[in-house]
Design a protein that fits this description.
mainly alpha; 66 residues
Length: 66
């Protein structure tokens, strides 16, 4: 069911943007430090290709840190 949802255009685009944001933050140590400092020490879950549900958890993690 989650895989079917991921094929919806807006969901697919949102997940791709979340992946880009997550990669950007993790690939830049200063930004990663600032993110943790301003998000009450929360971490963004790293996205994994093997587990589809992790995408939704990562999006939720990013959303909660706003």
């Amino acid at each position: 069911m989650l895989e079917e949802i991921s094929e919806i255009k807006i969901v697919k685009e949102t997940l791709e943007e979340a992946r880009l944001v997550s990669r950007f933050i993790y690939n830049h140590s200063k930004i990663s430090f600032l993110f943790r400092e301003h998000s009450k020490k929360k971490e963004i879950l790293k996205l994994a290709i093997t587990r589809f549900a992790i995408d939704y958890l990562a999006v939720d993690s990013i959303r909660e840190s706003e």
